[in-house]
Specification:
With 337 residues, this protein is of the alpha+beta class. It has twelve helices and ten strands. The chain has two domains: 86 residues; 230 residues, Bira Bifunctional Protein, Domain 2 (BirA Bifunctional Protein, domain 2). The strands form two sheets. The chain has a seven-stranded mixed beta sheet, sandwiched between helices. A hairpin with a 2-residue loop joins strand 3 and strand 4. The chain starts with a helix and ends with a helix. The structure holds 3,4-dihydroxyphenylalanine. The site of 3,4-dihydroxyphenylalanine (DAH) has 11 residues, from strand 9 and strand 10.
């Protein structure tokens, strides 16, 4: 019996050393420590041991059981620890989670892009108030008293002579009043019109205004500056045309079209099958405007231009509805990031 006990001890030792999984650990427990395990069956045979040996055999068996239990606990602890380690395991090689960053709104970015082109051509940047007097928004810009643009339909009147500016052109006047020529400036800003909100028009929008005043500014200067801008902004191969138009504050006045960069002149929905896109209004500063700011129209000439920012952004990014720009749906903004 004693011999069998020491044989079992060796066996237990070898089995414990071979435990390499939780299953092995369970198998070890069932084989040796369970109620029907090998140690229990040795204990059962204690009955048949002669009385004078019972004490020492009993002691040996107890020692054997402690030995097996000890080994079991030790292996069990090992597995517990390795599991804990795995739980708190940090993989430093994993790529980091992206941190969502905002970005410049499409309107601000379009303004910045346009500005940077003109700034490189020597233009400075000026701004003016959104709440304007009738005087700056209309009168000094040579709008006759009964001009339809003053109509309640288009203009938000705050008071009788106070309006939300309907365009950025009043900044031209403020600039000329506060500075001596030569002037070369662009003036971005928000404008308001009492329009029915639709895919093409909104009650609030942005414009960028341009003004150049000096002693010998010609229509050629106007054309070459705007063509240089269009080529840089819309692409090197952009074709252009100037159509005669009318604005109270310029004479002569024109509108600039560029060849449709979507269909390259073949005709598509965006250019309404004309092959051309209208991008801005422009002209030579009307002598009456110079007079209104105290400049001498005999001495000075100048050109001015104005374009809509949303319209420009819509053309450039093929945005079908102006409302998408102001609704600030994050899915939309992300696409224009
Ligand atoms: N203010 C005009 C508008 O709102 C745009 C414009 C046209 C501005 C011609 C100009 C210009 O300076 O010369 O439609």
């Amino acid at each position: 019996m004693l011999e069998e006990i020491s044989k079992t001890k060796l066996e237990i030792e070898a089995a414990a050393a071979n435990i390499s999984s939780r299953e092995d650990l369970q198998a070890f427990r069932v084989t040796y420590l369970a109620r029907k395990g090998k140690i229990a069956s040795l204990f059962a045979r204690l009955r048949d041991v002669p009385p004078e040996q019972k004490r020492s055999v009993g002691q040996e068996l107890n020692a054997l059981r402690s030995f097996a239990e000890e080994l079991f606990k030790e292996r069990e602890k090992h597995f517990e620890e390795s599991r804990k380690e795995k739980k708190g395991f940090l993989d430093y090689t994993l790529p980091g989670r992206e941190f969502p960053l905002g970005h410049t709104h499409i309107v601000s970015r379009t303004i910045a892009d346009i500005q940077s082109i003109f700034v490189r051509m020597g233009f400075s940047i000026a701004t003016g108030p959104e709440l304007e007097s009738d005087y700056y928004n209309f009168e000094t810009l040579n709008f006759p008293a009964d001009h339809p643009a003053r109509d309640m339909q288009d203009t938000f009147f705050i008071e009788k002579d106070v309006v939300l500016r309907t365009h950025t052109s009043p900044v031209q006047i403020r600039l000329m009043e506060s500075r001596k020529p030569p002037i070369r400036a662009i003036m971005p800003g928000r404008c308001y019109r009492n329009e029915v909100i639709s895919a093409r028009s909104h009650v609030q929008f942005h414009q960028i205004e341009g003004l150049c005043v000096d002693t010998r500014v010609t229509f050629t200067d106007l054309k070459s500056t705007l063509v240089a801008f269009a080529r840089e902004f819309y692409g090197e191969t952009t074709a252009y045309r100037f159509r005669p138009s009318y604005f109270p504050f310029t004479e002569p006045s024109a509108e600039m079209d560029i060849s449709c960069f979507l269909c390259h002149g073949d005709g598509c929905r965006v250019c309404k099958f004309t092959g051309w896109l209208e991008v801005l209004g422009c002209g030579m500063v009307d002598p009456n405007v110079f007079k209104a700011v105290g400049y001498d129209p005999e001495e000075l000439t100048g050109y001015a231009f104005g374009m809509g920012i949303e319209r420009t952004a819509m053309l450039r990014h093929n945005i079908p509805d102006i409302r998408l720009i102001f609704e600030n749906d994050a899915r939309m903004l992300r696409q224009l990031g």
